């Protein structure tokens, strides 16, 4: 009996010591960024809205300043808030804040390969290769524009098939954006009825949604829970199907490869593989895993960001019909009935302002993609250790009250001067900045402009019968990116 009492006392003492160690570990040194006091193991979870953590972090920034520390469970994170602070870190201290924090879920997705959730020489080589080939295949040039214009024609036909009746636009927008990526990566586009395209888009949309759920965020904090979390199991199932599909498609392209007639980025990668093999080079980064995950990264990122932005844009047009009418009057006056082109942007200042304001207000990647410090950093008077996870809080830039006159309302005038001319704003950073800026920014900007102007030229978007503009809800869905809540709109032909 005495032995059991001594054993129990020993366990209690050890537990107390462990809790003290965790507490001191959490509180850190005096010159580290401030933040709320964490609880052992739970960190600051009780102070966070795990469904919408970016809003909780915005409130914390008001109390602790533009550089502060918060604990997602046992995970220490330094948050950067506000335009000036984020730009200073990502642009002026690009090397120090330039690594990627690869959280457990991101590691599950890519195992450190590809171009988004990777670091070191492999990431540099894959990013350099991808950028070079996107430019070679026409990013920012007429050839890219032609692929997107072709897709706008298919999308308009799909919208027209609804004959002005209510429908959800998310899937069709995703099909269009994914088909553009297919044309760039593989060569041919996919028809919207193709089961491969439909399944890929459905899985991608589901994975983006699941990645932002509370249970998956808890998995990132406590990865040993993985096998018991249903959403994590669904994500791994989707990943397995994605890998098989990409592998099969790549193998088909390999069998029909003609080095003198490259169809897309995959062909370029396969040719580089052959060159490396023939040269006898060892430890090359041009291996199958980098190919598979680079292709996967391009499809998910290229499909979700553009389609989500366009869904927000159409919803806002239906919500604010006066803005929609003004956009259409400008398009009618400048373009008329011909196909909109990228070069028209400079003559459509109000339309361009509406697109930029949509991206600003929609704030679709609110916390950015996590960074990690590559070395010890002295920043804004604080010491941040090497290997610290850093959140560049993009919400705090796009909604920065010091940068925007009415940050929480839809106001295209943010991007117009008194004469109605378009004005660039330094704090417009929806694609982030620095070494990790979105490499598909040029493609996304062209896609969004051409799709938006083509659709607004041809259709008037309204709420379904029986609903008013006030009934359209702008509350976003929970997810890694912020999509509009499920809704239907009517696309009414203008002529």
UniProtKB/TrEMBL annotation:
- Transmembrane stretches in the record are 7-26
Subcellular location, record wording = Endoplasmic reticulum membrane; Microsome membrane
Q: Is the keyword Iron in the record?
A: yes
Q: What is its main location?
A: endoplasmic reticulum
Which parts of the sequence bind heme? 438
Sections of the chain in a coiled coil: 229-256
Question: Among the entry's GO cellular component annotations, what is one?
Answer: endoplasmic reticulum membrane
Q: Which Pfam families match?
A: p450
Q: PROSITE patterns this protein is in?
A: CYTOCHROME_P450
Under Gene Ontology molecular function, one entry of this record is: heme binding
Annotated GO biological process: aflatoxin metabolic process; organic acid metabolic process; xenobiotic metabolic process
Task: Give the cofactors, semicolon-separated.
Answer: heme
What are the record keywords, sorted?
Coiled coil, Endoplasmic reticulum, Heme, Iron, Membrane, Metal-binding, Microsome, Monooxygenase, Oxidoreductase, Transmembrane, Transmembrane helix
Q: Which InterPro entries match?
A: Cyt_P450 (IPR001128), Cyt_P450_CS (IPR017972), Cyt_P450_E_grp-I (IPR002401), Cyt_P450_sf (IPR036396), Cytochrome_P450_fam2 (IPR050182)
- Similarity comment: Belongs to the cytochrome P450 family.
According to UniProt, the name of this protein is: Cytochrome P450
**Taxonomic classification, please?**
Eukaryota, Metazoa, Chordata, Craniata, Vertebrata
């Amino acid at each position: 009996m005495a032995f059991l009492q001594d054993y129990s006392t020993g366990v209690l003492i050890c537990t107390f010591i462990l809790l003290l160690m965790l507490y001191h570990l959490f509180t850190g040194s005096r010159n580290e960024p401030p933040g709320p006091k964490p609880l052992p193991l739970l960190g600051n979870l009780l102070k966070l809205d795990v469904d919408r953590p970016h809003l909780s972090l915005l409130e914390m920034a008001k109390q602790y300043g533009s550089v502060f520390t918060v604990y997602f469970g046992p995970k220490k994170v330094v948050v950067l808030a506000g335009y000036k602070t984020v730009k200073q870190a990502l642009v002026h201290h690009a090397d120090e804040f330039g690594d990627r924090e690869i959280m457990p879920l991101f590691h599950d997705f890519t195992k450190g390969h590809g171009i988004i959730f990777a670091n070191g020489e492999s990431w540099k080589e894959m990013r350099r290769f991808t950028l070079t080939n996107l430019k070679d295949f026409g990013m920012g040039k007429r050839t890219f524009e032609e692929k997107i214009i072709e897709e706008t024609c298919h999308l308009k036909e799909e919208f027209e098939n609804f004959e002005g009746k209510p429908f959800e636009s998310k899937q069709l927008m995703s099909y269009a954006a994914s088909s553009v990526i297919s044309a760039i990566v593989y060569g041919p586009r996919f028809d919207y009825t193709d089961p491969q395209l439909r399944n890929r888009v459905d899985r991608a949309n589901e994975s983006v949604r699941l990645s932002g759920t509370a249970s998956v965020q808890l998995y990132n904090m406590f990865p040993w829970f993985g096998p018991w979390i249903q959403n994590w199991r669904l994500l791994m199932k989707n990943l397995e199907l994605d890998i098989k599909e990409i592998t099969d498609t790549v193998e088909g392209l390999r069998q029909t490869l003609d080095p003198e007639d490259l169809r897309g980025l995959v062909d370029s990668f396969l040719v580089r593989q052959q060159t490396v093999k023939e040269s006898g080079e060892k430890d090359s980064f041009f291996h199958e895993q980098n190919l598979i995950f680079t292709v996967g990264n391009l499809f998910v990122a290229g499909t979700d960001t553009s389609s989500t932005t366009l869904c927000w844009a159409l919803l806002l047009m239906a919500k604010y019909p006066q803005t929609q009418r003004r956009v259409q009057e400008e398009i009618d006056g400048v373009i008329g009935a011909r196909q909109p082109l990228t070069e028209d942007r400079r003559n459509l200042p109000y339309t361009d302002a509406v697109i930029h304001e949509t991206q600003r207000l929609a704030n679709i990647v609110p916390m950015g993609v996590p960074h990690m410090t590559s070395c010890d950093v002295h920043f804004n008077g604080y010491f941040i250790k090497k290997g610290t996870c850093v959140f560049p809080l993009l919400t705090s830039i796009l909604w920065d009250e010091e940068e925007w006159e009415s940050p929480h309302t839809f106001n295209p005038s943010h991007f117009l001067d008194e004469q109605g001319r378009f004005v660039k704003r330094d704090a417009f950073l929806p694609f982030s900045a620095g070494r990790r800026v979105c490499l598909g920014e040029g493609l996304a900007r062209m896609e969004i402009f051409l799709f938006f102007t083509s659709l607004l030229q041809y259709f008037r978007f309204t709420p379904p019968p029986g609903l008013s503009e006030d009934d359209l809800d702008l509350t976003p869905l929970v997810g890694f990116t912020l999509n509009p809540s499920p809704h239907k709109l009517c696309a009414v032909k203008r002529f």
